[in-house]
Specification:
Elements (H helix, E strand, L loop, with lengths): L3 E10 L2 E10 L2 E5 L6 H8 L7 E9 L8 E4 L21 H10 L16 H13 L5 E5 L7 H18 L2 E6 L11 E6 L2 E7 H6 L4 H11 L7
Parallel strand pairs: 3-7, 3-8, 5-6, 6-7
Antiparallel strand pairs: 1-2, 1-4, 8-9
Length: 231
């Protein structure tokens, strides 16, 4: 079974500590918090994308090598992740056979390869971005608010798709969002982040049903107010 142990992740800006956390990823895990809680900083630290102006201390071990080839990343805005002047086929860096394989995984016809991003819908663009991430033999998929730019129907479709991909490929997922509703059916574990620190973590179903912290309760109430969700 794949696992990542983040024994320590500390991010500082001058004398201010922005993130100071430790957690494990042994399955699909959600990192939840309001804007500014440190979610995206955590992702960027795992991707080694933080600026040199920040001081980063990491103590991470895993049973696979964490590098470019083993980590896939789905950004918050799929519309800015593709070159608008380049056909989809040239935005992949893999064989034609692999392109068709991953497009099939995300329920897209290979005809999209001949198109430009402007010729695709928002949901199709997000699926292309996911397919590009899956075109390498990844072990960990990082998602940064992947449904924010989508309407409700496409959002639900993408969540269902990610859930199916997780099961078929047996990969680890770290899903960053402020929207608990988007991860309730896909993430087994949940971590609540506030001001760069973890204030609550555990099984998603347990925390959604019996949260301990008032902050967690407010997040849940703001997300599920007037909504009925599946268990």
């Amino acid at each position: 079974m794949l696992h990542i142990n983040i024994n320590k992740l500390e991010i500082k800006s001058k004398d201010k500590k922005l993130v100071n956390i430790s957690f494990n990823i042994t399955d699909s895990t959600a990192l939840i918090g309001e804007s500014g809680s440190g979610k995206s900083l955590t992702l960027k630290a795992l991707l080694n994308l933080l600026p040199n102006s920040l001081e980063v201390k990491k103590d991470i071990d895993s049973n696979f090598e964490l590098n470019y080839n083993s980590i896939g990343f789905i950004p918050q805005n799929p519309f800015t992740s593709l070159s608008t002047m380049t056909k989809i086929t040239n935005q992949f860096f893999c064989s034609e056979e692999k392109k068709e394989e991953v497009l099939n995984l995300v329920d897209l016809d290979k005809s999209v390869l001949k198109k430009f991003p402007s010729q695709l819908s928002g949901g199709q663009i997000q699926r292309v971005v996911i397919a590009i991430a899956l075109s390498r033999d990844i072990k960990l998929l990082l998602l940064d608010e992947p449904t924010t730019a989508l309407d409700e129907e496409n959002k639900n479709n993408i969540i269902d798709l990610l859930n199916e991909i997780k099961k078929r490929l047996n990969i680890l997922i770290l899903f960053v969002t402020h929207d608990i509703n988007s991860i309730k059916d896909i993430c087994k574990n949940i971590i609540i982040l506030k001001n760069g620190e973890i204030i609550e973590k555990g099984l998603t179903n347990d925390i959604l049903s019996t949260p301990n912290e008032d902050y967690t309760k407010r997040l849940i109430n703001s997300t599920f107010k007037n909504k009925i969700f599946r268990t």
